[in-house]
């Protein structure tokens, strides 16, 4: 199978083929993701919580993201490799260029992901102008958890929904080549997915998105604490990590994940 690129992801959206995305933070899990046919691997700053045991993603630094991205890159064969830009590492376009440059040159990332809407448009334009593919992120923004007042569904009222749709369209115009929607009502996520030409990947955003992403440790049921509503544990039915990852990919591809109970209205 040929390597996944931003172009092939665009083609998948156009053809109605769902995109399967999972996080990974090391070489061993990356090999399992590749064997299962995952399309996109995200080295998420979620590593701060699931690897480092922190309460949020905020303490994760650029050096840590580069290290884990490089670990994943060594085992990556086909999937597109995306790396999160950590908190306060892209406060200006110039700083963002430096961070993205490290993630790509030293870490081996093929795309970087950043959180935020209208305030990030100039940064997205500058990154794209310098040949750096960008994945945007709207809805629940983990790096803004304190401003948002916790991990809550976003875009439920009419004004918030309008702003999110406008931000999504503006990010696409600025050059973003993919968008993640987190904890967004099903109807709004579907509307945004249909309005954009770029692939829209949901996490707690319903089955109307062009693809789905979960934190690997969540879908294996090994994350400590209460499991978010949008997470499904794929391990018990398969009895192996490799089988659980394959089951997740299959469920995303055939549209059976997420179900209504794993989505928000």
TrEMBL record:
CDD domains: KPHMT-like. Mg(2+) binds at residues 45, 84, 115. Pathway: Cofactor biosynthesis; (R)-pantothenate biosynthesis; (R)-pantoate from 3-methyl-2-oxobutanoate: step 1/2. GO terms for cellular component: cytoplasm. 3-methyl-2-oxobutanoate binds at residues 45-46, 84, 113. The active site is at 182 (proton acceptor). Keywords: Cytoplasm, Magnesium, Metal-binding, Pantothenate biosynthesis, Transferase. One of its GO terms (biological process) is pantothenate biosynthetic process. Its cofactor is Mg(2+). The keyword Lyase does not apply. Binds 1 Mg(2+) ion per subunit. It is found in: Cytoplasm. Catalyzes the reversible reaction in which hydroxymethyl group from 5,10-methylenetetrahydrofolate is transferred onto alpha-ketoisovalerate to form ketopantoate. PANTHER family: 3-METHYL-2-OXOBUTANOATE HYDROXYMETHYLTRANSFERASE. Belongs to the PanB family. Homodecamer; pentamer of dimers. This is 3-methyl-2-oxobutanoate hydroxymethyltransferase.
């Amino acid at each position: 199978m040929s390597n996944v690129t931003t172009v092939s992801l665009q083609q998948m959206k156009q053809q109605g083929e769902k995109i399967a995305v999972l996080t990974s933070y090391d070489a061993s899990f990356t090999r399992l993701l590749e064997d299962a046919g995952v399309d996109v691997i995200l080295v998420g700053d979620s590593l701060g919580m699931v690897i480092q045991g922190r309460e949020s993603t905020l303490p994760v630094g650029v050096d840590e993201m580069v290290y884990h991205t490089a670990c994943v890159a060594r085992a990556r064969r086909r999937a597109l490799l995306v790396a999160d830009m950590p908190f306060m590492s892209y406060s200006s376009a110039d700083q963002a260029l430096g961070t993205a440059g490290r993630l790509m040159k030293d870490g081996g990332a093929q795309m970087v992901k950043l959180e935020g809407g209208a305030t990030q448009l100039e940064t997205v334009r500058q990154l794209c102008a310098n040949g750096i593919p960008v994945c945007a992120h709207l809805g629940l923004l983990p790096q803004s958890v304190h401003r948002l007042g916790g991990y809550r569904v976003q875009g439920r009222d009419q004004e918030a929904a309008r702003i999110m749709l406008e931000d999504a369209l503006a990010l696409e115009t600025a050059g973003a080549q993919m968008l993640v929607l987190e904890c967004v009502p099903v109807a709004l996520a579907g509307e945004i997915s249909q309005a954009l030409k770029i692939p829209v990947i949901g996490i707690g955003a319903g089955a109307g998105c062009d693809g789905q992403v979960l934190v690997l440790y969540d879908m294996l049921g090994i994350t400590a604490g209460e499991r978010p509503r949008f997470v499904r544990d794929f391990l018990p039915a398969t009895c192996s990590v490799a089988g659980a990852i394959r089951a997740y990919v299959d469920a995303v591809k055939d549209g059976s994940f997420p179900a209504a109970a794993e989505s928000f209205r």
